[in-house]
Design a protein that fits this description.
By secondary structure, the protein is an all-alpha fold. Helices cover 75% and strands 0% of the residues.
Length: 247
């Protein structure tokens, strides 16, 4: 939107990442068609092509280790664009993951998920820019979505919908009170106290504090992981999400 060097840089980064990831998606479907003889999304049976597809979608979504572009792009774009990037632009890759979830590699996805939650928590700790904080929060939420997609894809969708709703609330609130840095957020409560109270609750909900909505998908995911005999992974990912709750 704004013809600003920083915004142009962000747009270029976004374009290059997404086009590389799209090329990888096409490449994975080609290798799959080469080995199995069909182009159907649900017939992604070849291990190499499912591996390439997983990494391509991880790149599109911004899962660790392909996450470097996301905070940068979000920081360089205005709040409304940031909202679109964090919610609507994540829907197509998640839809692809949902449709191919039965043939993906559980170990790889669990590893990516735990790394994402860890990095989303740690890197968010030392940020002063609100958009970067929200970018790292998004990365750790994606970790929760990736860990459960193989076992119960519907929970991933529930998590995504609730995440999109809470993120939309936060971005629109910040847009209303014109806040970009933590230092301006500190003094913003005098402008619209009621809106700020809501922002506080939404931030706690996004972090996943138990009585609030944001805890619901985490609770269900922990329950499902325990049913799948993955209690250690559930414990680890819960402890790592405490990092993002802290900031």
């Amino acid at each position: 939107k704004s013809h600003h060097p920083r915004a142009i840089e962000a747009a270029t980064k976004y374009f290059l990442t997404q086009s590389a990831a799209s090329a990888l998606v096409l490449f994975s479907s080609m290798t799959n068609a080469w080995h199995t003889g069909q182009w159907d999304i649900t017939q992604l049976t070849h291990p190499t092509s499912s591996l390439i597809l997983t990494s391509a979608i991880a790149m599109k979504l911004g899962l660790v280790p392909f996450h470097f572009w996301f905070p940068e792009v979000l920081q360089g774009s205005p709040l409304t664009t940031g909202l679109l990037l964090s919610t609507i632009m994540k829907l197509p890759p998640i839809a692809l993951l949902y449709m191919t979830s039965h043939s993906l590699n559980p170990t790889l996805l669990t590893t990516l998920a735990i790394l994402s939650t860890a990095l989303g928590g740690w890197m968010g700790l030392n940020q002063t820019q609100i958009r970067k904080v929200l970018a790292f929060s998004s990365i750790s939420h994606l970790g929760w979505m990736a860990i459960i997609i193989v076992y119960n894809p519907k929970l991933t969708l529930l998590n995504f919908y609730l995440y999109a709703m809470m993120t939309a609330t936060i971005f629109l609130t910040l847009n209303t009170i014109k806040v970009l840095k933590l230092s301006t957020l500190m003094t913003a409560w005098t402008k619209i106290p009621s809106l700020n109270a809501m922002l506080l609750l939404t931030l706690l909900s996004l972090a996943g504090l138990p009585p609030l909505t944001g805890f619901l998908p985490k609770w269900l995911i922990i329950q499902e992981l325990t049913k799948q005999d993955m209690a250690p992974a559930a414990t680890l990912i819960s402890l790592l999400s405490l990092l993002s709750l802290f900031f």
